[in-house]
Amino acid sequence: MTDNSLTMPGTARFATFNPQKFIGALLVFFGAITHSSKAIFIKLAYQYPIDPVSLVALRMLFALPFFLAIGYFSGRSKKAAKLTPSDWVAVAFLGFVSYYFAALLDFMGLQYITASLERLILFVYPTLVVIISATVYRKKVTRSQLIALGFTYVGIAVVFAGNLDMTQQKNFMLGVLLIFGCALFYAIYMIGSEKLIPKVGATRFTAYAMTFAALGVVSHYFISNSGSLLQFPRQVYELSIGMAIISTVIPAFLISAGIKRIGASDASIVASVGPIATIIMAYMFLNETLSVTQLLGTALVLGGVLLISLKKGKRKD
What's this model's pTM, rounded to 2 decimal places? Predict the structure, then answer.
């Protein structure tokens, strides 16, 4: 028999701490931070003579061995489900969408706008995830998601209020449009990965999707460029290796594991910590400003992240 002696009259719902959701939120949280370091690596690499396509190709070439190895061993597991041709097409499509098309637009956009602004525009994707999920899949937007979105976007707005000098940025609107396109593609990846991860497995899905993305990027390079990937300064390769491991391999698996536990919509909201992480790293490595206003925005974003670890439950009478 269920003990209802502590049930208050007229109350049917309560908030409880859910360990799996909390772990999932932490995985996405740290995945978003490591992924946000990508903009710093890109900006540092652009100090040297290299174009976006070559830089994306180097990043994915250095990351590819990790994904091939992990994909091979995860596919040999007895628990690994057999993939149908349509499953392979879906995994390849999401790989191209996320770390090929989206990544290429992101690298191109960062030629024209700052690292901090790039994160602000990119993180409209949680809204896009919620909107697409609600319109295409008829997925209900919960009150906790709306509140969390409110916290995170107010925090982001506070961070950037009065700190952008758009008039001095060359090709500003082009950069904005390129990064928005990246956000749209990434939102599609988040939604699609939520559908495939339960069948394929988080680790296996990520390894396969990223392998397809890497093959697409490298093929693009060799089709569009006649030069060698061995012609750049030593610092470019060091930055590319750091970008491959820290902001590509590690976050890819952390975020996929987090999506498995909390879903794409909640994961996209937790990942809104990304712009704040970029601001702090841009201050440390790119000499961009860090103010009290930015720290206040950080606190608001973290408040939104905390809400995701609470789950609504029903009491049984």
Answer: 0.77
Q: Which two tokens stand for residue 219?
A: 């093929």
Collapsing DSSP to helix, strand or coil, 7 comes out as coil
Instruction: Give start and end residues of each alpha helix (H) in the chain.
Output: 19-45, 52-75, 85-96, 103-109, 115-122, 125-136, 143-160, 172-200, 202-224, 234-244, 250-270, 274-285, 292-307
DSSP state of 95: H
**91 or 156, higher pLDDT:** 91
For 68-86, what is the mean pLDDT?
A: 84
Q: Which of 102-106, 107-111, 167-171, 186-190 has the lowest mean pLDDT?
A: 167-171
SS3 15: strand
Contact 182, 105 (CB under 8 A): yes
CA 31, CA 270: separation in Å to the nearest integer?
10
Residue 249 has pLDDT above 50, yes or no: yes
Question: Could you identify the residue written with the tokens 């495939």?
Answer: 196
Q: What is the pLDDT of residue 33?
A: 93
Torsion of CA 213, 98, 287, 277, to 10 degrees: -120
Task: State how far the Cα of 297 lies from the Cα of 35, in Å rounded to an integer.
Answer: 20
Contact 106, 46 (CB under 8 A): no
DSSP 312: E
CB atoms under 10 Å from CB of 302, counted, come to 16
Q: What is the mean pLDDT of the chain?
A: 82
Give the CA distances from residue 251 to residues 61, 126, 288, in Å, rounded to whole numbers and listed in that order: 17, 17, 24
Q: In 3D, which of 298, 276, 44, 288 has the Cα closest to residue 163?
A: 288
pLDDT tens string 125-134: 777 887 788 7
Q: Please tell me the total number of residues recorded for the chain in this structure.
A: 317
CA dihedral defined by 80, 82, 85, 89, rounded to 10 degrees?
-10
Higher-scoring residue by pLDDT: 134, 185: 185
CA of 101: how far to CAs of 9, 209, 267, in Å? 54, 13, 21
